[in-house]
């Protein structure tokens, strides 16, 4: 199991767009089918017959940002318990053993706004996977031993993955500084002092409230047909009773950002200096029409690969060992961030690199982008998803994350058209509106004795 806090959240813009791709491109032109079961569970079927395998994913509309105050890490903790605990029909670990016995793969991840469980198996095993997942959706049996064991596992995971890693330590502190009010400021894995106090009552209440078919999305991608998936879904998930209707996912609103903040971590284990500057910007769920698409393309032009401005001017210019940008517009229910980052090369100073990166942004704010580079950025964004169309996991992840955060199949399918309509003036406008350095948060990672000058 993995916490999705240092994976997709930290990917460059071109890769992050896997979560906001054109549906027909990544499904090879095959029709996407979606429907509701009588108990409220939404189902999406993404046929693709290039290989005799199928990816089966269950997405719950619950993540770390939905946790009660003082219970950070609960969503991720419960993800572990779903694999650890027995059910009324299966022994502990039986699902994992069944998947491995047929040569499949199984995993799960927790993010701010959702938790997902997935298996990749032969099509003949699809009904078995549905049966297992439907069973643990409502029949999980949690014991005190399960709670203690997995709580200890997560505490060790935090020690090794965050507390013992300067890069992730800095990321965590930058998040806590960037977000002043939204729950995205709290680490997905949780704060140590709160993880160690999570109890059986916490886990059981969380399960009873959120793990129900009417709070879940089923995505099936691969060598299947919609009629078969519907029949199997009704036979397994369709037999489950819905839970009570959940209230709207109302979150604290982020206040206007009006200061420049910096976070500096100096550590003897650091050998490569780096900086990252972050701005709070709208996501696809919160933006005005066209804004999120313009931010996507702005990030691509700024730092989405070796044709980007940051790469061409800083890396090829010899001042940076690496430089880039990313915007994670999808996969979030609330506001998100746009980030630039870099590490100096040779004798270059970190402060000089940062100033040069800021100058790249200032030129876009002042002069905008050219029609030619905008068109090439659009082509790269769409093409990167076409190249990924054979990867069932990416396709399933795209639709699952969109629907779990309030989007629709139509949102996914219309994305390329919306990208194509973005103008150079719109890209310049979002750069000027959002990328102001006097309301940004910058993190510096330095060796113990280093200074910025």
Which descriptors would you attach to this protein?
453 residues; alpha+beta; Cytochrome Bc1 Complex, Chain A, domain 1; seven-stranded mixed sheet; five-stranded mixed sheet; 14 strands
Describe the structure concisely for a colleague.
The protein is of the alpha+beta class. It has 18 helices and 14 strands. Helices cover 42% and strands 18% of the residues.
The proportion of residues forming helix, as a percent range, comes to 40-55%
CATH second-level architecture of the largest domain: 2-Layer Sandwich
Question: Which fold name corresponds to the CATH topology of the largest domain?
Answer: Cytochrome Bc1 Complex, Chain A, domain 1
CATH class of the largest domain: Alpha Beta
Question: What separation lies between the terminal Cα atoms?
Answer: 42 Å
Total E-strand runs: 14
Query: Quick one: biggest sheet?
Result: 7 strands, mixed
* Strand arrangement across the biggest beta sheet: 1-6-7-4-9-3-2
**Which residues sit in consecutive blocks of at least 5 with pLDDT less than 50?**
1-26
Shape by Cα distribution: globular
3D structure, described in words:
The protein has 453 residues and is an alpha+beta fold. The protein has 2 domains: 2-239, Cytochrome Bc1 Complex, Chain A, domain 1, CATH 3.30.830; 261-446, 2-Layer Sandwich (Cytochrome Bc1 Complex, Chain A, domain 1). The chain is built from 18 helices and 14 strands. The protein has a 7-stranded mixed sheet with strand order 1-6-7-4-9-3-2, sandwiched between helices. The chain has a 5-stranded mixed sheet with strand order 10-14-11-13-12, with helices on both faces. The longest helix is centred in the middle third of the chain and has 20 residues, at 144-163.
């Amino acid at each position: 199991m993995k916490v999705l806090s240092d994976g997709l959240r930290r990917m460059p813009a071109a890769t992050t767009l896997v979560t906001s791709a054109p549906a027909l491109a990544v499904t090879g032109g095959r029709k996407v089918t979606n429907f509701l079961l009588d108990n409220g569970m939404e189902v999406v079927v993404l046929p693709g017959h290039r290989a005799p395998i199928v990816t089966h994913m269950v997405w719950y509309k619950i993540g770390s940002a939905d946790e009660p105050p003082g219970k950070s890490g609960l969503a991720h903790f419960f993800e572990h318990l779903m694999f650890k605990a027995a059910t009324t029909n299966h022994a502990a670990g039986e699902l994992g053993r069944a998947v491995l016995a047929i040569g499949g793969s199984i995993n799960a991840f927790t993010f701010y706004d959702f938790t997902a469980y997935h298996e990749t198996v032969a099509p003949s095993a699809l009904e078995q996977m549905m049966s297992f997942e439907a069973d643990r959706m409502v029949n999980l049996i949690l014991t005190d031993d399960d709670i203690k064991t997995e709580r200890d596992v997560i505490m060790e995971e935090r020690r090794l993955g965050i507390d013992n890693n300067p890069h992730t330590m800095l990321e965590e502190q930058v998040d806590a500084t960037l977000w002043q009010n939204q729950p995205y400021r709290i680490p997905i894995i949780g704060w140590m002092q709160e993880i160690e106090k999570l109890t059986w009552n916490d886990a059981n209440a969380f399960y009873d409230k959120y793990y129900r078919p009417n709070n879940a999305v089923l995505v099936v991608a691969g060598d299947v047909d919609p009629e078969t998936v519907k029949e199997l879904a009704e036979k397994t998930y369709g037999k489950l009773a819905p839970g009570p209707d959940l209230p709207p996912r109302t979150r604290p609103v982020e206040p206007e950002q009006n200061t420049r903040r910096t976070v500096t971590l100096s550590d003897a284990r650091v050998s490569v200096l780096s900086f990252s500057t972050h701005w709070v910007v709208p996501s696809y769920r919160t933006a005005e029409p066209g804004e999120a698409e313009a931010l996507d393309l702005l990030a691509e032009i700024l730092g989405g690969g070796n044709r980007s401005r940051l790469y061409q001017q800083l890396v090829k210019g010899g001042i940076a060992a690496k430089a880039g940008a990313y915007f994670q517009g999808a996969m979030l229910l609330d506001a998100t961030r746009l980030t630039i980052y870099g590490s100096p090369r040779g004798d270059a100073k970190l402060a000089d690199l940062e100033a040069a990166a800021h100058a790249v942004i200032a030129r876009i704010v002042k002069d905008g982008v050219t029609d030619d580079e905008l068109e090439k950025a659009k082509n790269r964004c769409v093409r990167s998803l076409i190249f990924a169309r054979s990867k069932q996991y990416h396709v399933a992840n795209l639709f699952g994350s969109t629907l779990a955060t309030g989007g629709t199949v139509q949102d996914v399918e219309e994305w390329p058209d919306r990208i194509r309509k973005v103008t150079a003036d719109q890209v310049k406008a979002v750069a000027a509106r959002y990328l102001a350095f006097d309301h940004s948060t910058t993190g510096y990672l330095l060796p113990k004795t280093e200074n910025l000058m």
